[in-house]
Each structure stands twice: as C-alpha cells, then as structure tokens.
UniProtKB/TrEMBL annotation, chains A, B:
This is LpxI family protein. Residues 145-273 form the LpxI C-terminal domain. It comes from the Bacteria. PANTHER family: BLL4848 PROTEIN (PTHR39962), LPXI FAMILY PROTEIN (PTHR39962:SF1). It holds the Pfam family LpxI_N. The lineage of its organism: Bacteria, Pseudomonadati, Pseudomonadota, Alphaproteobacteria, Rhodospirillales. Residues 11-140 form the LpxI N-terminal domain. InterPro entries: LpxI, LpxI_C, LpxI_C_sf, LpxI_N.
Length: 280, 280
C-alpha cells in the first residue's frame, strides 16, 4: 500500500474556485489512487465540489489557518482550480499570516496575476509543491487543430491572427487574455470584466457579414500553474449567442474542459473551435 | 478684399461628424474672415450644424460627388471634425469613385484609422490640403496640467501611468485610445465600442476605495489631422456617473472642447481633469 501511495503521488490539496473543474480534478486524482483535500471558499466554490470529500470551508484572508490545516492533513502538493471572482473586502480580511503576506506584496497587487504568483510563492515557502492542472490531467491541455468538425476559413484565419496580436500585447502587460475581431476590426479587448462579459457586449458591435472570432491566449510570461485560459461548453454557447463564428484558443497554453461536449456544442451551433500554435 | 481673403486662408470644407464641434469650427473660421462649406452626413451630422451655411447633405459612399462639389465651391482646405459612428452598408454604397477607392484600400480597412488615413490621402490627391482641428483652433489642444481646481494625488498618478501604458500599447496596434485603471487594476480597455460605452461598464467593475481614472491618449503614430481623442462636458459627466475620480488626457495630443465648461463641470462633480505630457 505504501508503494502504491508513493507511485500515485502525495496527497493533493485543491484550492477550489467556481465551476465543475475542481470536482473533475478531485475525481480524476482519486481515480489515480491519490488522496485529496479540498479548500473551499464561501460564495465561490460550488458546494457539490466537497460532497463526500475531506474539506475546509474558508475565507481568502485566512491564509494562516489554511496552511496550518494542509500541514495537519499531510498534504504534499497544491493545485489552484477554477475561476475566482474578485473577492470582497470582508473575504480578504486578513489573519496575521495574510497580513504579513499582503504587507510584502502590497494591496495594489490584488486582483491580477501578480497576486496569484505571490500566493504560489507563499505556499511553496511553506514546503508544499504547487502543480498545474495540466500536470494532473494531461488531456485537459488544448491540442492544435479543430475540436469539432468545422475549421476557420481564410478570413477567419486573418481575424485570428489580428486577435492574437492584440491579446498577446495585453497579456504582456498582465491585463487580459482575450480579444474579439471581426473582418479585421477589433470589437472588444478583455480586461477585468472577464470573457463572458466581453462576449455579451459584442452582439451590439457586430457589423453585417461574416461574424467575428474570439481568441484566448495565455499571457506571454504566464506561469502555467495559475489562471490558464479555460474554455468549455459555456464559452461556446456564449460566443454563439454573441453572433461569433468561431473560437481559437492557444494549443498547449489553455485548458479545454470536456472536449467531447465542446465538439458536440460547436457542431450543433455551427461554430469552429480550434487550437492554435503560438510561437513563444 | 482679395488681400484679406488671402491672409485669412482659402475656403474651408468641414466634413461634419456628430456633436457640436463642427459648428464651433465653422463659427471660429468664419470669425477669421474665411469662407466655409459643410459636408453633412445623414444620421451623423446635427442638422443645426448647417443652418445658414452653404452645405451638401451626402452619404459616405458618394466620394465622387462630394469631391466634385468641393472643386465647384472653390474649396482649398478640408478638415474632418466630430465623431462618426460606424456607417451602415447602405450609407457606404459606393459611387464609382468610392468603389475605385475601396478596391485600392480594401474593405478590411473599413472602421479603423487605416480607413481615415486613406481618406486623407485620397482627398489630397484631388488637390485639397487636409488640415487638423488644432491648425484652425490652437486653443482646442489640451495643455499640460489641471483643467479645473482638482489635481491627481499620488495613487491617481500611479493609476494614470498604468493606464497610459495600456492605452499606448493598444494605440500602437491601431485599436483604441482609452483605458480605465483603479488601484493598479485595469478595469477596461477601449476597442470599437468607444469611450462612452467603456465608461458605462466600469460602474459594475469598481471595487471599494478610491475610484478609477480614465486615460485617453493619441495613438503613438497617429496623424493629428484625424480622430484625435476628444473630451468635453459629456465625458466628465459620464466618468462621474461611472464612479471615477478623474480623467487624464494627452497634452498636445487631444482636443478639449469648451474648456471653461469642462472645468466648471469637473469642479461641481468632484473630478480632476488634467493634461499629461507623454514622451513621443
């Protein structure tokens, strides 16, 4: 038994954001014979995520008690999974450990990748290894080429290239990961509002003729353990509702949740979804 | 009389977009003793702009008849004034001259600065001189420093610097001119939706604490004759409604319409409005 445990890997703590991704990770990792421990955040984590699993409900500001509990549970590795909406001030109200951390990184870092990078460093200084979702589930990483049966035509390819240029420039400044382009015109650039809100405003900005494309790429210097662009069925549905004709996400630099369902949804709604290779 | 006319300058054609700017220009130029001719666009130009002045109502697609008329009227200089919302396909329906033009620049250029630059070249090839609004009304150009009685504090200065960085990066890619930053976080980046729509979505994105700042800068390589960032009383009102604390616009690279009214509105609503110098 000790050998099996060794081979499967140390106990994994899942810092669980919203959506179904944390539960998928928990299920897959347990299937590999590893122990898991869920850190859930009130108002962010879906309560179903923790059903039947060892867990702790916590606030973001309670870094001290979270890390203490992970030591007690014998956790060896930590993964960040699922989106977290911007936490409120109350949720962030710091314990002494969090206060020391915030004093060091500065409250101006709150809300962008700088904060997540600092969280990763802090957790690692406590002796835990922080891993990426793609280390746990290799087939989550987007692969090159079409996901469904449709592929971009020449005009869509040009729009994709323009959107990649814009999204990469914003990513280099640690702003956003997404952009929407139609017929060469940049309709929308993503900042803190997130991809869904960006898609919602595109419907009113489309011109007649071929619909636009959504592109999501990771930030050029992004640590793949944190906040990789993620897409799933919902993204396809929202892109279709906005009148777009397709979605391109970075192969090897984004997560595709439930590939079969994404392919089915894309085919049914008449959109292409494709993985594109970006020179690093 | 001929000498006076010579000194005041040749007859000026004003390609009139929306708002009050075209009428202000017409009034100022006539005050200098110059003749004006207004080219108005249905659905875009305020009908009051042409009241009592020689003018032509036209469609964007009728480049041939517009240019012919400017020759007949003895126009020497042309200025583009006021914003133009994206024209519909019907408005763009080309005459033969416009079709030749579109065939050369390509319909993919429609809607961004590439199109306006091409329009300027086309008008100049016909023998007209295209001038900038700041050539006609020097005091329209934003000057450095506060417009009203408030000035940015240290935190607002940091937010301004961050927004300048983002807006310049987007401008370099010919996307937009504006960004909103609060406490170091980029709340919104402007694309085709325009500044007003960008401000409207900021209200829902603000966090507690000091409000954000709106920054507008010209694109790094922008021809100052076309589409300089413009701000006036409406911008101040919309920024206040969005919960922002101030506005910074590029000194020498943006137009400030009705400076006295902007200062009064900013003071009344408690916002700073300031001209910032950007190294070119």
């Amino acid at each position: 038994m000790a050998d099996t445990h060794q081979a499967a890997g140390p106990k994994l703590a899942i810092m669980a954001g919203g959506g179904t991704l944390p539960a998928r990770i928990a299920s897959a990792v347990r299937g590999q014979g590893r122990g898991v421990f869920i850190v859930a955040f009130e108002g962010h984590t879906d309560p179903e995520t923790v059903a039947g699993l060892p867990h702790l409900w916590s606030r973001f500001g309670a870094a001290g008690s979270i890390l203490r509990r992970l030591h007690e549970e014998g956790v060896g590795e930590v993964v960040l999974a699922g989106p977290v909406k911007r936490p409120s001030f109350t949720e962030l109200m710091p314990d002494w450990r969090t206060a020391r951390f915030l004093a060091r990184v500065g409250t101006r870092a709150l809300g962008d990748d700088g904060l997540l990078r600092a969280v990763v460093r802090e957790v690692e200084e406590d002796g835990f290894r922080v891993v990426g979702l793609h280390d746990l589930l290799k087939d989550l990483l987007t692969t090159p080429g079409p996901v469904g049966s449709l592929a971009p035509d020449a005009e869509a390819e040009r729009d994709i290239a323009r959107a990649v240029e814009v999204a990469r420039a914003m990513g280099a400044l640690d702003v956003g990961q997404g952009a929407v382009v139609q017929q060469g015109i940049v309709l929308a650039v993503e900042a803190i509002e997130g991809t869904d809100a960006m898609l919602e405003r595109c419907a009113g900005l489309l011109r007649p003729g071929p619909g636009g494309v959504l592109v999501k790429v990771k930030k050029p210097k992004q640590d793949r353990r944190i906040d990789l662009p993620t897409m799933g069925v919902t993204t396809v549905e929202k892109a279709a509702a906005a009148g777009l004709r397709g979605i391109a996400v970075e192969a090897g630099g984004s997560l595709l949740v439930d590939r079969a369902a994404v392919a089915e949804t894309a085919d049914r709604l008449g959109l292409f979804v494709t993985g594109i290779e970006i020179p690093q």
